[in-house]
Amino acid sequence: MIPSIHKRGSKTIGLIRYLYGPGTEEEHIDPHLVAAFDPLIPDPGRNPKATYEQLQRLLDQPVNALPASKRPEKHVWHLSVRAAPEDPLLSNEDWATIARRMVAITGIAPDGDEQACRWAAVRHADDHIHIIATLVRDDGRRPRLHNEARRAQAECRRIEADYGLRRVASGDGTAAKPPTSAERHKAEREGREQPAREELRETVRRAVAGATSEEEFFDRLAAAGLLIRKRVAPSGDLLGYKVALPDNRNGNREPVYYAGSTLAPDLSLPRIRKRWADKTHSVSAEVAGPASSGPATARRRAAGALWQAILVIDHGEDAQVAAHIAAAGEVLDALAKTSAAHTRAQLREAAFVFERATRSHIKAERGHDRALRQAARDLVYSGPALGRGEDGATTAMVIDMLFFLVTAAAHWHAKKNHAQQAVAARRAAEHLRAAYKAAADVPLTMLYQRGRHLSQPLRHRQAAHLRQAVPELAEQVLAEPGWYALAATLADAKAAGHDPTALLTEAVGRRELQTADSVSDVLAWRIRRMADLPADTTAMSEPTTTTARGSGSSAQPSPRRDDRPRMSR
Protein backbone atom coordinates (compact mmCIF):
# COMPACT_ATOMS: atom_id res chain seq x y z
CA MET A 1 0.00 0.00 0.00
CA ILE A 2 1.48 3.29 -1.14
CA PRO A 3 0.69 6.68 0.48
CA SER A 4 1.45 9.83 -1.52
CA ILE A 5 1.33 13.30 -0.01
CA HIS A 6 0.74 15.78 -2.81
CA LYS A 7 1.73 19.43 -3.03
CA ARG A 8 -0.31 21.71 -0.84
CA GLY A 9 -2.90 23.84 -2.59
CA SER A 10 -4.87 27.01 -2.10
CA LYS A 11 -8.27 26.11 -3.57
CA THR A 12 -10.33 23.49 -1.77
CA ILE A 13 -13.11 23.64 -4.35
CA GLY A 14 -10.70 22.83 -7.17
CA LEU A 15 -9.54 19.59 -5.56
CA ILE A 16 -13.11 18.61 -4.66
CA ARG A 17 -14.22 19.06 -8.25
CA TYR A 18 -11.34 16.88 -9.44
CA LEU A 19 -12.07 14.12 -6.91
CA TYR A 20 -15.76 14.02 -7.81
CA GLY A 21 -15.27 14.69 -11.51
CA PRO A 22 -14.71 12.21 -14.34
CA GLY A 23 -10.92 12.44 -14.09
CA THR A 24 -8.48 13.48 -16.80
CA GLU A 25 -9.20 10.32 -18.80
CA GLU A 26 -12.72 9.40 -17.62
CA GLU A 27 -11.16 7.04 -15.10
CA HIS A 28 -13.15 8.12 -12.02
CA ILE A 29 -16.05 5.75 -11.37
CA ASP A 30 -18.76 6.34 -8.75
CA PRO A 31 -16.99 9.01 -6.63
CA HIS A 32 -18.31 9.05 -3.06
CA LEU A 33 -17.31 9.75 0.53
CA VAL A 34 -16.14 6.82 2.63
CA ALA A 35 -15.32 8.85 5.76
CA ALA A 36 -15.04 12.44 7.02
CA PHE A 37 -14.42 14.49 10.16
CA ASP A 38 -18.21 14.51 10.68
CA PRO A 39 -20.15 11.36 9.71
CA LEU A 40 -23.23 13.48 8.94
CA ILE A 41 -21.60 15.46 6.13
CA PRO A 42 -23.75 15.32 2.96
CA ASP A 43 -21.98 13.42 0.18
CA PRO A 44 -22.12 15.14 -3.26
CA GLY A 45 -21.53 11.76 -4.83
CA ARG A 46 -24.57 10.05 -3.31
CA ASN A 47 -26.87 12.87 -2.15
CA PRO A 48 -28.40 14.75 -5.10
CA LYS A 49 -29.08 17.77 -2.85
CA ALA A 50 -25.47 18.05 -1.68
CA THR A 51 -23.11 20.30 -3.64
CA TYR A 52 -19.36 20.64 -4.01
CA GLU A 53 -19.58 24.17 -2.65
CA GLN A 54 -21.38 22.93 0.47
CA LEU A 55 -18.57 20.44 1.18
CA GLN A 56 -15.97 23.14 0.50
CA ARG A 57 -17.58 25.56 2.98
CA LEU A 58 -17.67 22.90 5.70
CA LEU A 59 -14.01 22.02 5.21
CA ASP A 60 -12.85 25.65 4.94
CA GLN A 61 -14.89 27.03 7.86
CA PRO A 62 -11.90 27.15 10.31
CA VAL A 63 -9.80 28.88 7.64
CA ASN A 64 -12.44 31.47 6.86
CA ALA A 65 -12.94 32.14 10.58
CA LEU A 66 -9.43 33.59 10.77
CA PRO A 67 -8.69 37.19 9.86
CA ALA A 68 -7.74 37.40 6.19
CA SER A 69 -4.18 38.39 7.08
CA LYS A 70 -3.67 35.20 9.13
CA ARG A 71 -5.10 32.68 6.70
CA PRO A 72 -2.44 30.37 5.26
CA GLU A 73 -2.13 30.67 1.50
CA LYS A 74 -1.50 26.93 0.98
CA HIS A 75 -4.11 25.47 3.30
CA VAL A 76 -5.26 22.41 1.28
CA TRP A 77 -3.65 19.11 2.30
CA HIS A 78 -4.00 16.10 -0.03
CA LEU A 79 -3.05 12.46 0.57
CA SER A 80 -3.78 9.48 -1.68
CA VAL A 81 -3.49 5.88 -0.49
CA ARG A 82 -3.26 3.14 -3.11
CA ALA A 83 -3.45 -0.64 -2.78
CA ALA A 84 -1.29 -2.94 -4.91
CA PRO A 85 -2.89 -4.39 -8.07
CA GLU A 86 -2.81 -7.91 -6.64
CA ASP A 87 -4.41 -6.92 -3.32
CA PRO A 88 -7.98 -8.08 -2.54
CA LEU A 89 -10.78 -5.57 -3.11
CA LEU A 90 -11.33 -3.54 0.05
CA SER A 91 -14.81 -2.45 1.12
CA ASN A 92 -15.90 1.12 1.81
CA GLU A 93 -15.78 0.30 5.52
CA ASP A 94 -12.18 -0.91 5.17
CA TRP A 95 -11.18 2.27 3.36
CA ALA A 96 -12.98 4.39 5.98
CA THR A 97 -10.93 2.74 8.73
CA ILE A 98 -7.74 3.22 6.73
CA ALA A 99 -8.58 6.91 6.18
CA ARG A 100 -9.08 7.47 9.93
CA ARG A 101 -5.78 5.76 10.68
CA MET A 102 -3.97 7.94 8.14
CA VAL A 103 -5.32 11.29 9.39
CA ALA A 104 -4.55 10.22 12.96
CA ILE A 105 -0.96 9.13 12.34
CA THR A 106 -0.09 12.16 10.17
CA GLY A 107 -1.35 14.68 12.74
CA ILE A 108 -4.32 15.94 10.71
CA ALA A 109 -6.84 14.51 13.17
CA PRO A 110 -5.21 12.69 16.11
CA ASP A 111 -7.44 10.24 17.95
CA GLY A 112 -9.58 11.96 20.57
CA ASP A 113 -8.72 15.49 19.41
CA GLU A 114 -12.07 17.31 19.07
CA GLN A 115 -10.41 20.45 17.71
CA ALA A 116 -8.52 18.71 14.91
CA CYS A 117 -8.43 19.66 11.24
CA ARG A 118 -11.45 18.96 9.07
CA TRP A 119 -11.06 16.29 6.42
CA ALA A 120 -12.91 14.03 3.98
CA ALA A 121 -11.95 10.81 2.20
CA VAL A 122 -13.23 10.24 -1.35
CA ARG A 123 -13.15 6.95 -3.21
CA HIS A 124 -13.48 7.11 -6.99
CA ALA A 125 -11.70 3.85 -7.92
CA ASP A 126 -11.52 0.37 -6.46
CA ASP A 127 -7.86 0.52 -5.51
CA HIS A 128 -7.36 3.88 -3.77
CA ILE A 129 -8.79 6.81 -1.83
CA HIS A 130 -7.97 10.52 -1.64
CA ILE A 131 -8.03 12.44 1.63
CA ILE A 132 -8.53 16.20 1.52
CA ALA A 133 -8.01 18.32 4.63
CA THR A 134 -7.71 22.00 5.54
CA LEU A 135 -4.62 22.96 7.52
CA VAL A 136 -6.33 25.03 10.18
CA ARG A 137 -7.76 23.32 13.25
CA ASP A 138 -11.18 24.15 14.71
CA ASP A 139 -9.40 26.08 17.48
CA GLY A 140 -7.62 28.21 14.87
CA ARG A 141 -4.18 26.69 15.36
CA ARG A 142 -2.07 24.90 12.78
CA PRO A 143 -1.64 21.11 12.94
CA ARG A 144 1.71 19.55 13.80
CA LEU A 145 2.68 17.60 10.70
CA HIS A 146 6.31 16.79 11.42
CA ASN A 147 7.48 13.88 9.19
CA GLU A 148 3.91 13.10 8.07
CA ALA A 149 5.15 11.33 4.94
CA ARG A 150 7.35 8.96 6.95
CA ARG A 151 4.56 8.39 9.46
CA ALA A 152 2.14 7.59 6.64
CA GLN A 153 4.61 5.07 5.18
CA ALA A 154 5.02 3.34 8.56
CA GLU A 155 1.25 3.17 9.07
CA CYS A 156 0.78 1.63 5.62
CA ARG A 157 3.22 -1.15 6.60
CA ARG A 158 1.02 -1.87 9.63
CA ILE A 159 -2.16 -1.73 7.53
CA GLU A 160 -0.65 -4.26 5.10
CA ALA A 161 -0.05 -6.66 7.98
CA ASP A 162 -3.52 -6.11 9.46
CA TYR A 163 -5.37 -6.67 6.17
CA GLY A 164 -3.14 -9.32 4.64
CA LEU A 165 -2.06 -7.06 1.77
CA ARG A 166 1.11 -7.15 -0.27
CA ARG A 167 4.03 -6.14 1.96
CA VAL A 168 5.79 -3.20 0.33
CA ALA A 169 9.39 -2.47 1.30
CA SER A 170 9.82 0.82 3.14
CA GLY A 171 10.74 3.69 0.88
CA ASP A 172 13.45 6.30 1.30
CA GLY A 173 12.28 9.02 -1.06
CA THR A 174 14.61 8.05 -3.91
CA ALA A 175 12.11 6.06 -6.00
CA ALA A 176 10.77 7.24 -9.32
CA LYS A 177 7.15 8.36 -9.26
CA PRO A 178 4.92 5.47 -10.35
CA PRO A 179 2.29 5.94 -13.05
CA THR A 180 -1.00 7.34 -11.82
CA SER A 181 -4.21 5.36 -12.18
CA ALA A 182 -5.18 7.73 -15.00
CA GLU A 183 -1.94 6.95 -16.85
CA ARG A 184 -2.42 3.20 -16.37
CA HIS A 185 -6.05 3.30 -17.55
CA LYS A 186 -5.08 5.37 -20.57
CA ALA A 187 -2.40 2.85 -21.51
CA GLU A 188 -4.92 0.00 -21.22
CA ARG A 189 -7.45 1.79 -23.42
CA GLU A 190 -4.85 2.58 -26.06
CA GLY A 191 -3.35 -0.91 -26.02
CA ARG A 192 0.08 0.20 -24.82
CA GLU A 193 2.39 -2.32 -23.18
CA GLN A 194 3.21 0.18 -20.43
CA PRO A 195 2.12 3.69 -19.37
CA ALA A 196 3.78 6.56 -21.22
CA ARG A 197 5.69 7.61 -18.10
CA GLU A 198 7.39 4.20 -17.82
CA GLU A 199 8.11 3.95 -21.56
CA LEU A 200 9.72 7.39 -21.50
CA ARG A 201 11.78 6.57 -18.41
CA GLU A 202 13.08 3.40 -20.05
CA THR A 203 13.91 5.23 -23.30
CA VAL A 204 15.69 8.08 -21.52
CA ARG A 205 17.72 5.67 -19.40
CA ARG A 206 18.88 3.87 -22.54
CA ALA A 207 19.84 7.20 -24.08
CA VAL A 208 21.93 8.03 -21.01
CA ALA A 209 23.75 4.67 -21.00
CA GLY A 210 27.37 5.33 -21.89
CA ALA A 211 26.67 8.83 -23.26
CA THR A 212 29.46 11.38 -22.76
CA SER A 213 27.89 14.71 -23.70
CA GLU A 214 24.59 16.60 -23.85
CA GLU A 215 24.73 16.62 -27.64
CA GLU A 216 25.04 12.84 -27.77
CA PHE A 217 22.30 12.39 -25.18
CA PHE A 218 19.79 14.56 -27.05
CA ASP A 219 20.75 12.99 -30.38
CA ARG A 220 19.90 9.58 -28.91
CA LEU A 221 16.55 10.84 -27.63
CA ALA A 222 15.71 12.20 -31.07
CA ALA A 223 16.84 8.97 -32.74
CA ALA A 224 14.50 7.06 -30.42
CA GLY A 225 11.61 9.09 -31.81
CA LEU A 226 10.86 11.23 -28.75
CA LEU A 227 9.63 14.81 -28.89
CA ILE A 228 12.00 17.09 -26.95
CA ARG A 229 11.52 20.48 -25.33
CA LYS A 230 14.56 22.22 -23.88
CA ARG A 231 14.35 24.84 -21.14
CA VAL A 232 16.85 27.59 -21.92
CA ALA A 233 17.85 30.50 -19.67
CA PRO A 234 18.00 34.08 -21.04
CA SER A 235 21.77 33.64 -21.05
CA GLY A 236 21.39 30.75 -23.48
CA ASP A 237 22.36 28.10 -20.90
CA LEU A 238 20.38 24.87 -21.02
CA LEU A 239 18.50 24.38 -17.74
CA GLY A 240 16.43 21.26 -18.34
CA TYR A 241 14.40 19.22 -20.77
CA LYS A 242 11.06 17.52 -21.28
CA VAL A 243 10.18 14.57 -23.49
CA ALA A 244 6.98 13.16 -24.94
CA LEU A 245 5.83 10.24 -27.03
CA PRO A 246 4.53 11.50 -30.39
CA ASP A 247 1.28 9.54 -30.06
CA ASN A 248 0.56 10.29 -26.38
CA ARG A 249 -1.82 13.27 -26.49
CA ASN A 250 -4.10 15.04 -24.04
CA GLY A 251 -7.72 16.08 -24.59
CA ASN A 252 -6.59 19.02 -26.72
CA ARG A 253 -4.54 16.66 -28.94
CA GLU A 254 -1.30 18.13 -27.59
CA PRO A 255 1.71 15.95 -26.69
CA VAL A 256 1.99 15.12 -22.99
CA TYR A 257 5.49 16.13 -21.89
CA TYR A 258 7.36 14.86 -18.84
CA ALA A 259 10.40 16.57 -17.34
CA GLY A 260 13.41 14.32 -16.81
CA SER A 261 13.24 14.90 -13.05
CA THR A 262 9.62 13.69 -12.97
CA LEU A 263 10.57 10.47 -14.74
CA ALA A 264 13.22 9.63 -12.13
CA PRO A 265 15.33 11.65 -9.69
CA ASP A 266 18.57 10.79 -11.50
CA LEU A 267 17.24 11.72 -14.95
CA SER A 268 17.19 15.48 -14.37
CA LEU A 269 19.68 17.28 -16.58
CA PRO A 270 21.94 18.35 -13.66
CA ARG A 271 22.11 14.77 -12.37
CA ILE A 272 22.83 13.39 -15.86
CA ARG A 273 25.60 15.95 -16.34
CA LYS A 274 27.37 14.64 -13.25
CA ARG A 275 27.93 11.32 -15.02
CA TRP A 276 30.40 12.89 -17.44
CA ALA A 277 31.36 16.16 -15.75
CA ASP A 278 33.76 14.74 -13.15
CA LYS A 279 36.91 16.87 -13.41
CA THR A 280 39.17 14.59 -11.41
CA HIS A 281 38.40 11.54 -13.51
CA SER A 282 37.68 13.13 -16.88
CA VAL A 283 36.76 10.91 -19.80
CA SER A 284 39.68 10.47 -22.14
CA ALA A 285 39.44 10.98 -25.89
CA GLU A 286 39.79 7.25 -26.37
CA VAL A 287 36.91 6.57 -23.96
CA ALA A 288 34.75 9.26 -25.54
CA GLY A 289 34.92 7.70 -29.00
CA PRO A 290 32.45 5.07 -30.17
CA ALA A 291 33.60 1.47 -29.97
CA SER A 292 34.74 -0.05 -33.23
CA SER A 293 34.57 -3.67 -32.10
CA GLY A 294 31.76 -6.11 -32.71
CA PRO A 295 29.12 -7.27 -30.23
CA ALA A 296 31.14 -10.27 -29.01
CA THR A 297 34.22 -8.19 -28.18
CA ALA A 298 32.08 -5.57 -26.45
CA ARG A 299 30.46 -8.26 -24.34
CA ARG A 300 33.82 -9.75 -23.36
CA ARG A 301 35.04 -6.34 -22.26
CA ALA A 302 31.82 -5.75 -20.37
CA ALA A 303 32.23 -9.07 -18.52
CA GLY A 304 35.71 -8.01 -17.42
CA ALA A 305 34.51 -4.60 -16.25
CA LEU A 306 31.61 -6.19 -14.37
CA TRP A 307 33.99 -8.56 -12.62
CA GLN A 308 36.11 -5.67 -11.37
CA ALA A 309 32.94 -3.88 -10.26
CA ILE A 310 31.87 -6.91 -8.21
CA LEU A 311 35.13 -6.68 -6.27
CA VAL A 312 34.41 -3.01 -5.54
CA ILE A 313 30.87 -3.79 -4.38
CA ASP A 314 32.22 -6.51 -2.11
CA HIS A 315 35.06 -4.49 -0.60
CA GLY A 316 34.86 -0.81 -1.67
CA GLU A 317 33.84 2.40 0.06
CA ASP A 318 30.13 3.20 0.06
CA ALA A 319 30.37 6.13 -2.37
CA GLN A 320 32.34 4.01 -4.84
CA VAL A 321 29.91 1.12 -4.48
CA ALA A 322 26.94 3.42 -5.16
CA ALA A 323 28.65 4.68 -8.33
CA HIS A 324 29.38 1.16 -9.57
CA ILE A 325 25.82 -0.03 -8.95
CA ALA A 326 24.45 2.99 -10.82
CA ALA A 327 26.85 2.39 -13.73
CA ALA A 328 25.93 -1.30 -13.77
CA GLY A 329 22.39 -0.14 -14.47
CA GLU A 330 23.73 1.57 -17.59
CA VAL A 331 25.40 -1.67 -18.69
CA LEU A 332 22.16 -3.55 -18.19
CA ASP A 333 20.22 -0.89 -20.14
CA ALA A 334 22.75 -1.09 -22.98
CA LEU A 335 22.69 -4.88 -23.02
CA ALA A 336 18.89 -4.93 -23.12
CA LYS A 337 18.94 -2.41 -25.96
CA THR A 338 21.31 -4.54 -28.06
CA SER A 339 20.15 -8.03 -27.09
CA ALA A 340 18.88 -10.72 -29.42
CA ALA A 341 15.19 -11.57 -29.58
CA HIS A 342 15.32 -14.67 -27.36
CA THR A 343 16.86 -12.75 -24.43
CA ARG A 344 15.42 -9.29 -25.01
CA ALA A 345 12.25 -9.49 -22.92
CA GLN A 346 13.92 -10.79 -19.77
CA LEU A 347 16.84 -8.37 -20.06
CA ARG A 348 14.44 -5.46 -20.49
CA GLU A 349 12.56 -6.54 -17.38
CA ALA A 350 15.83 -6.93 -15.47
CA ALA A 351 16.93 -3.43 -16.48
CA PHE A 352 13.50 -2.01 -15.65
CA VAL A 353 13.38 -3.36 -12.10
CA PHE A 354 17.11 -2.88 -11.36
CA GLU A 355 16.64 0.83 -12.01
CA ARG A 356 15.23 1.12 -8.47
CA ALA A 357 18.43 -0.41 -7.06
CA THR A 358 20.64 2.21 -8.72
CA ARG A 359 19.53 5.05 -6.40
CA SER A 360 19.87 5.50 -2.65
CA HIS A 361 20.75 8.30 -0.25
CA ILE A 362 24.42 7.31 -0.47
CA LYS A 363 25.94 9.82 -2.88
CA ALA A 364 27.77 8.14 -5.75
CA GLU A 365 31.40 9.13 -6.23
CA ARG A 366 31.58 9.43 -9.98
CA GLY A 367 34.76 8.77 -11.93
CA HIS A 368 35.59 5.39 -10.43
CA ASP A 369 32.83 3.89 -12.57
CA ARG A 370 34.44 4.85 -15.89
CA ALA A 371 35.12 1.26 -16.93
CA LEU A 372 31.47 0.29 -16.56
CA ARG A 373 30.25 3.39 -18.38
CA GLN A 374 32.72 2.64 -21.18
CA ALA A 375 31.39 -0.93 -21.27
CA ALA A 376 27.87 0.42 -21.68
CA ARG A 377 29.08 2.69 -24.46
CA ASP A 378 30.87 -0.18 -26.22
CA LEU A 379 27.71 -2.28 -26.10
CA VAL A 380 25.62 0.51 -27.62
CA TYR A 381 28.05 1.31 -30.43
CA SER A 382 28.95 -2.30 -31.22
CA GLY A 383 25.38 -2.79 -32.39
CA PRO A 384 22.78 -5.48 -31.77
CA ALA A 385 23.88 -9.07 -31.26
CA LEU A 386 22.30 -11.79 -33.34
CA GLY A 387 22.44 -14.25 -30.45
CA ARG A 388 24.37 -16.90 -32.38
CA GLY A 389 27.95 -18.11 -32.35
CA GLU A 390 30.38 -15.97 -30.39
CA ASP A 391 27.75 -13.25 -29.98
CA GLY A 392 25.40 -15.64 -28.23
CA ALA A 393 28.08 -17.25 -26.09
CA THR A 394 29.54 -13.93 -24.93
CA THR A 395 26.02 -12.73 -24.17
CA ALA A 396 25.65 -15.70 -21.82
CA MET A 397 29.02 -14.84 -20.32
CA VAL A 398 28.12 -11.21 -19.60
CA ILE A 399 24.66 -12.14 -18.24
CA ASP A 400 26.39 -14.65 -15.96
CA MET A 401 28.60 -11.85 -14.62
CA LEU A 402 25.68 -9.43 -14.34
CA PHE A 403 23.84 -11.95 -12.21
CA PHE A 404 26.69 -12.03 -9.71
CA LEU A 405 26.93 -8.23 -9.68
CA VAL A 406 23.21 -7.78 -9.15
CA THR A 407 23.29 -10.38 -6.37
CA ALA A 408 26.21 -8.54 -4.76
CA ALA A 409 24.25 -5.29 -5.04
CA ALA A 410 21.26 -6.91 -3.31
CA HIS A 411 23.50 -8.03 -0.43
CA TRP A 412 25.07 -4.57 -0.13
CA HIS A 413 21.70 -2.81 -0.10
CA ALA A 414 20.38 -5.26 2.48
CA LYS A 415 23.36 -4.52 4.76
CA LYS A 416 22.62 -0.80 4.41
CA ASN A 417 18.91 -1.35 5.19
CA HIS A 418 17.91 -0.16 1.71
CA ALA A 419 14.82 -2.36 1.62
CA GLN A 420 13.32 -1.32 -1.72
CA GLN A 421 16.67 -1.38 -3.49
CA ALA A 422 17.48 -4.86 -2.17
CA VAL A 423 14.10 -6.17 -3.33
CA ALA A 424 14.59 -4.60 -6.76
CA ALA A 425 18.03 -6.17 -7.16
CA ARG A 426 16.72 -9.60 -6.21
CA ARG A 427 13.88 -9.26 -8.73
CA ALA A 428 16.38 -8.23 -11.41
CA ALA A 429 18.46 -11.32 -10.59
CA GLU A 430 15.47 -13.57 -11.31
CA HIS A 431 14.98 -12.00 -14.73
CA LEU A 432 18.70 -12.40 -15.41
CA ARG A 433 18.39 -16.04 -14.43
CA ALA A 434 15.74 -16.52 -17.11
CA ALA A 435 17.75 -14.55 -19.69
CA TYR A 436 20.82 -16.65 -18.94
CA LYS A 437 18.93 -19.88 -19.54
CA ALA A 438 17.92 -18.63 -22.98
CA ALA A 439 21.39 -17.35 -23.86
CA ALA A 440 23.45 -20.22 -22.46
CA ASP A 441 21.45 -23.18 -23.75
CA VAL A 442 23.24 -23.59 -27.09
CA PRO A 443 26.85 -22.70 -26.11
CA LEU A 444 26.77 -24.81 -22.93
CA THR A 445 25.23 -27.72 -24.80
CA MET A 446 28.08 -27.54 -27.31
CA LEU A 447 30.63 -27.45 -24.50
CA TYR A 448 28.83 -30.37 -22.86
CA GLN A 449 29.04 -32.40 -26.06
CA ARG A 450 32.73 -31.63 -26.50
CA GLY A 451 33.39 -32.66 -22.90
CA ARG A 452 31.51 -35.94 -23.40
CA HIS A 453 33.71 -36.68 -26.41
CA LEU A 454 37.01 -36.09 -24.65
CA SER A 455 39.08 -39.22 -24.30
CA GLN A 456 38.76 -40.88 -20.92
CA PRO A 457 42.44 -40.25 -19.98
CA LEU A 458 42.03 -36.57 -20.85
CA ARG A 459 38.89 -36.28 -18.74
CA HIS A 460 40.70 -37.98 -15.87
CA ARG A 461 43.48 -35.41 -16.11
CA GLN A 462 40.92 -32.58 -15.86
CA ALA A 463 39.36 -34.27 -12.83
CA ALA A 464 42.81 -34.48 -11.25
CA HIS A 465 43.30 -30.75 -11.81
CA LEU A 466 39.93 -30.15 -10.16
CA ARG A 467 40.74 -32.30 -7.10
CA GLN A 468 44.12 -30.64 -6.72
CA ALA A 469 42.78 -27.08 -6.97
CA VAL A 470 39.49 -27.33 -5.05
CA PRO A 471 39.30 -30.64 -3.18
CA GLU A 472 36.32 -29.40 -1.13
CA LEU A 473 34.21 -28.86 -4.29
CA ALA A 474 35.56 -31.60 -6.53
CA GLU A 475 32.98 -34.33 -5.88
CA GLN A 476 30.08 -31.91 -6.14
CA VAL A 477 31.34 -30.58 -9.48
CA LEU A 478 32.06 -34.06 -10.87
CA ALA A 479 28.46 -35.05 -10.12
CA GLU A 480 26.99 -32.10 -12.02
CA PRO A 481 25.92 -32.38 -15.68
CA GLY A 482 27.96 -29.24 -16.30
CA TRP A 483 31.19 -31.08 -15.43
CA TYR A 484 31.61 -32.06 -19.07
CA ALA A 485 31.50 -28.38 -20.12
CA LEU A 486 34.11 -27.55 -17.49
CA ALA A 487 36.30 -30.47 -18.58
CA ALA A 488 36.21 -29.20 -22.19
CA THR A 489 37.10 -25.71 -20.97
CA LEU A 490 40.07 -26.98 -18.94
CA ALA A 491 41.29 -28.94 -21.97
CA ASP A 492 40.98 -25.80 -24.12
CA ALA A 493 42.88 -23.77 -21.52
CA LYS A 494 45.66 -26.36 -21.41
CA ALA A 495 45.90 -26.36 -25.20
CA ALA A 496 46.17 -22.56 -25.12
CA GLY A 497 49.17 -22.76 -22.78
CA HIS A 498 47.51 -22.16 -19.42
CA ASP A 499 47.84 -24.13 -16.19
CA PRO A 500 44.36 -25.61 -15.50
CA THR A 501 45.05 -26.06 -11.79
CA ALA A 502 46.12 -22.45 -11.38
CA LEU A 503 43.12 -21.22 -13.34
CA LEU A 504 40.73 -23.28 -11.22
CA THR A 505 42.30 -22.04 -8.01
CA GLU A 506 42.00 -18.44 -9.11
CA ALA A 507 38.46 -18.86 -10.44
CA VAL A 508 37.21 -20.37 -7.19
CA GLY A 509 39.09 -17.89 -5.02
CA ARG A 510 37.79 -14.83 -6.79
CA ARG A 511 34.30 -14.98 -5.32
CA GLU A 512 31.84 -17.18 -3.47
CA LEU A 513 29.95 -19.94 -5.27
CA GLN A 514 27.15 -20.51 -2.76
CA THR A 515 24.59 -18.78 -5.01
CA ALA A 516 25.40 -21.09 -7.94
CA ASP A 517 22.98 -23.83 -8.98
CA SER A 518 25.77 -25.30 -11.07
CA VAL A 519 29.30 -24.59 -9.85
CA SER A 520 30.75 -26.19 -12.97
CA ASP A 521 28.90 -23.79 -15.28
CA VAL A 522 30.12 -20.78 -13.31
CA LEU A 523 33.71 -22.02 -13.35
CA ALA A 524 33.55 -22.76 -17.07
CA TRP A 525 32.54 -19.15 -17.88
CA ARG A 526 35.06 -17.68 -15.46
CA ILE A 527 37.92 -19.71 -16.88
CA ARG A 528 36.98 -19.00 -20.49
CA ARG A 529 37.01 -15.28 -19.73
CA MET A 530 40.21 -15.40 -17.62
CA ALA A 531 42.07 -17.48 -20.25
CA ASP A 532 40.64 -15.42 -23.12
CA LEU A 533 39.19 -18.55 -24.73
CA PRO A 534 36.54 -18.24 -27.44
CA ALA A 535 33.10 -18.38 -25.86
CA ASP A 536 31.81 -20.08 -29.02
CA THR A 537 33.55 -23.46 -28.89
CA THR A 538 33.19 -24.11 -32.61
CA ALA A 539 36.18 -21.78 -32.93
CA MET A 540 38.37 -24.23 -31.00
CA SER A 541 40.61 -26.74 -32.74
CA GLU A 542 38.98 -30.16 -32.47
CA PRO A 543 42.09 -32.41 -32.50
CA THR A 544 43.21 -31.19 -29.06
CA THR A 545 40.05 -32.37 -27.34
CA THR A 546 38.19 -34.99 -29.33
CA THR A 547 38.19 -38.68 -28.65
CA ALA A 548 40.50 -40.93 -30.65
CA ARG A 549 38.60 -42.95 -33.23
CA GLY A 550 37.54 -46.28 -31.82
CA SER A 551 37.91 -45.34 -28.15
CA GLY A 552 34.26 -46.06 -27.59
CA SER A 553 33.34 -42.86 -25.78
CA SER A 554 32.03 -41.28 -28.96
CA ALA A 555 29.20 -43.76 -28.85
CA GLN A 556 27.80 -42.04 -25.76
CA PRO A 557 24.21 -40.91 -26.40
CA SER A 558 23.47 -37.24 -26.77
CA PRO A 559 22.16 -35.73 -23.54
CA ARG A 560 18.44 -35.35 -23.12
CA ARG A 561 17.40 -31.70 -22.90
CA ASP A 562 16.78 -31.92 -19.14
CA ASP A 563 20.28 -33.38 -18.62
CA ARG A 564 22.02 -30.40 -20.20
CA PRO A 565 23.73 -27.76 -18.09
CA ARG A 566 21.42 -25.68 -16.02
CA MET A 567 21.46 -22.00 -15.06
CA SER A 568 24.66 -21.45 -13.14
CA ARG A 569 23.03 -20.08 -10.01
UniProtKB/TrEMBL annotation:
Native source organism of the sequence: Streptomyces sp. R28
All copies of domain MobA/VirD2-like nuclease, residue ranges: 71-165
Sequence ranges of Basic and acidic residues compositional bias: 182-198, 559-569
Protein name, UniProt field: Relaxase/mobilization nuclease domain-containing protein
Pfam name, any one: Relaxase
InterPro entries: Endonuclease_MobA/VirD2
Region named Disordered: 167-198, 535-569
Biased composition (Low complexity): 535-547
Domain of life: Bacteria
